[in-house]
Design brief:
It is a single chain. This protein is α+β, with helices and mostly antiparallel strands. Helix content is about 25%, strand content about 20%. The strands form nine sheets. An eight-stranded mixed β-sheet has the order 5-18-13-6-7-8-19-28, sandwiched between helices. Strands 22, 23, 24, 25, 26 and 27 form a six-stranded mixed β-sheet that branches. Strand 22, helix 14 and strand 23 form a beta-alpha-beta unit. The protein is globular, with a radius of gyration of 28 Å. The N terminus is likely disordered.
Amino acid sequence: MDTQGRGRVENVDPADQWVLNPNTGEYELRLSPSAPQSPVPGPRRTTTGKAGAARSRTTPPTAPGREVPPQRRRRPAADEPEPGRRGRRPEKKKSKGKKALLWTGGTMAFVMVAAAGAGYFYLKHLEGNVKTTDVGDAGASSFKKDEAFNILVLGTDKRTGAGNEGYGDTGSSGHADTTILLHVAKDRSNATAMSIPRDLIVDIPDCRTKQDDGSEEVVPGLQNVRFNRSLGESGRDPGCAMRTVKEFTGISVDHFMMADFNAVKTLTTAVEGVKVCVENAVDDKQSKLQLPAGESTVEGERALAFLRTRKAFGNSGDLDRIKVQQQFLGSLMRKMSSGDTLTSPTKLLKLAEAATEALTVDSAIGKVGTLKDLALELKKVPPKNITFTTVPVRDNPAETIKATVVVKETTAPQVFDMIKNDISFTEVKAQQKKEAAAVAARLKGAKADASQVRVRILNGGAPSGSAQNQLDWLQNSAGVTKSENAGNADADVARTTLEYAPDQADQARRLADLMGLAGAAMKPGKSVTNAQGLPTMTLTLGKDFKGAGVKLNAASAATPDVEKSTADKVQCAS
C-alpha cells in the first residue's frame, strides 16, 4: 500500500502525515500508531516496551550516506498534539528554504530533476519510476557536484500514453522533437539553456548502442540530415543525440533527460497550472488551442497544446515555436520556485511522482539520490542568470523552398565557445565589480576607431583554430577589418598579450576594449610590418583565451545577433 493509501485508511489527508522535523528543518513521513505496516516506501517501524504495554514509534527514512540516531521516547505533554498531526510545530521558525528541500528550476528539465529530489523520503519507490538508458562513453560515468555540467534535455514525438494519439507523427519511433542543451556553470552563478532546432542540418556520427539483451550494435551515421533523426530512427538512443551535439558544437554532453508528451501534462497538473501570456487571442484549429489575449493559466492538455502550436505565433515555423517554449519554461520555473509550491507537501508528493514517472535518464544519474544531488546543485542558480537562447542559424542555402536551417558560421562558434569555456550570457553582480576594476586599470587615453586598428594574430597555446576564429569575429562582428592570421607563435604562453609600438597606443586601447584585455596584457614594445608595409600590432592568444569574441576579463560577453531571454522575465508570445 502506498503512502496515500495508508492515509486513506483513517481518512487522513496524506499531507497531514508529512511533519517538519525541528532538528533538520526537513519534512518527514510520520504514520499514526494505528496505521498498518508496509515495507515500501514508508519508514521503518519498531516496537518497544514490555508485553501488553508495547508502544510503537516511527523511525524516519535515512538519506543515502546518513545515519539517523534513535529517537528518544517521551510522554507527550497534555496540550501537545499526537505525533504525525498537522498541529505539531517547531519552536524555532525555519527559513523558507529549510521548509521544502529548496526546489528550483528553469526549464522542464530543471523541474523534472528538482521534483525528483522529493525522493529523499521514499527513494526505493520513486527509483522504480525512473527509467534509465546506458549511453556508454557518449556521456559521463558519474555526476560530479564540484564541476560544470551539460545535460541534453530531449522531448520526443512518440505517441505513448493515453490521450496522445493525436500528437506527433503517426508511427514515429520517437524523434527529437524538442531539444535543449542545459549548461550549468561550475560556480553555479549562472546557467544557459540552448535550444537546438529539430530542422537543423547536421552530420550524425556512427553510434554504438546497447540492446536489451546486453549486446552492442553500431548504427551507421548520416550526413546532411535533420537533427531530429539523431534519436529514435534506426534504433538510435539518446547517446546518439549526445554524440551528434558534440559533433557540430564541440561541446561534450555529460547526461541526458528524456520525456514524452505525458511529462508536460502531468507536471503542469501537479503544480496546478502555469501562467502564459499571448499578445493576441489564439484560436488554432490544428492544436485546438484557444486563449484570450493577455494572461491565462494552462495545465494538462491545454499546456501541451500551447507548447506544440505553430500556426498561432510568428511565421508558423519551428524557430518561433522554440521562443514560445522558452517563455513557457521560464514561467514553469517561476511557478516551481514560488512559495505556495515550495511549502506544500501535497504538491511536492505529486511532483515527485509525476516527474519520476515521466523521466528517462542516463544510467549515471538514474538513482533518485543522485537526482536529488543534481536538484540541489540546480537550486543554487539564480533565475535572473538562467539564459534561454537558440543555436544561431540561417536558412539552408541548398533549398529553394526553405524548410531547414544550417549553423550560422559568423555567430555560432562564439556561442559554442562561451558554453565550452563556462562563460555566462548574463551579467553577474560580483563579476561586474571585478570588470570595473579591470577597466580602471587599463591604459587611459583616446581610442582609435576599430576600422583603423591593424593587428596580426598568433596562436600561442589556445585551442587549435582559435586564431582564425578570432580573426573572423574581429572582421565580421567588431569592425577590425585590417587584421590577419599569422599562424602559430614560436612558443606557448599562459596569458594573452598585445604588443604595440608607442604610436599605436590608441589602436591598442581600442582592441583592449573589444577583447577585455587588462593593463597587464598590454605590452608596449615594437610593431611589425604587414604585407602592405604598414606597422601592425601583434596579438598572441594564450592558454587563457576563452573563445572568439569572449572578453578575457569577463564572466559574460556580448553575443551579436543572438536572441536571449532570462527565466525571471515575464514575456508574451506574439
